[in-house]
Amino acid sequence: MSAATRTGQPVAVTGLGLVTPAGIGTQASWDGVLAGAPAAATDPVLEGLDVDFSCRVPGFDATELLGRKAARRLDRFTQLAVVAAREAVADAGLDPSTWDGARVGVVLGCGMGGAATWEAQHRRLIERGPGRVSPMLIPMLVPNMVAGQLAMEFGAMGPNLVTATACASGATAIGVARDLLRSGACDIVLTGGTEAGLTPLSIAGFAQMQALSRRRDDPARASRPFDVDRDGFVAAEGAGVLVLERTDHAAGRGARVRANLAGYGASADAHHITAPDPDGRGAALAMRAALADAGVGPDEVTHVNAHGTSTPLNDVAEARTIRRVVGDHVAVTSTKGVTGHPLGAAGAIEAAFSVLTVEHGRIPPTANLDSQDPEIDLDVVAKAPRERAVDVVMSNSFGFGGQNAVLVVTAA
Hints:
alpha/beta, Peroxisomal Thiolase, Chain A, domain 1, 12-stranded mixed sheet, about 20% strand, globular, disordered N terminus
């Protein structure tokens, strides 16, 4: 599978940064998903709601990690991203004080922006009047500010944007970043996704849609992708940032390449605002486009990191599409059994897990998979990590609105 056989040059993944419900930092997050330890727990912020549990990042102290000023002036979705990006840049062995900032871009995905800031300031408006609304309201809540903050943090003066394709946002951002590198517009792009929407209004809205699990008596077992007893997803927060570089740039500075981002495909279901196309036509288009972009055949895919939300409709539709596009030989997992569903950050976090799977030859298990749905006729990894060489991973992300983004990660 040489570069010459691909339709486009792959780009190098040289750095990873993760802040997830499985842990703060890449190693902690990786250890958590390998252990299959679910992060869902009762959430005091959601007290009194029909769904009062979530997957929060454990022990995240913005004042300790970022300083008092940043903790006060940045919404949590931006705080999470800054911490993840700092780790990713350090992991890549890059020194922002020495790079050519004009050749460094930032592309982040985010579905909701500063939801917590919005709700808190709305309460202040109602209770105390417009004169007490914070002048930082708009800079804290608008989604594009996370990319702007990273640009200021690292002196990245190249293309700077945020993608919003709901739960596919992080994967879409990585695909757009890849395009910037292939076009020659950038040498380096900081990319990924972030989300911190665990607020009463947001969770009430998801609950009214019947999208969330109602397993209040046992939150830890609520997120159960592909299980016959699944009843909805568990909302989560988190951030994942990858450093992508042109392969010649990475080679020129002697960088460690953790894996290659070889392919990206995107599509729309054009079917329904929230439900997936039961025939998976849009998802199949994105999967096939990603494979063609990477120059690999379906039989070369070793592993699929599935979108696997734990909802009745999504899991069956995705499973059928995986089987139709790449066959039944692949080992499939959903890390959302551990992390819950981090919404706009999910695709980025799972892309990072895909890189780690390729790098270490370990496929994480699907947590809480006790009895696989007979309609899901796939080899789903459960109970324990599977040790095997993994050369090609497909990572799927699908969002409300029918927006699909699929990445193909290959061994370096």
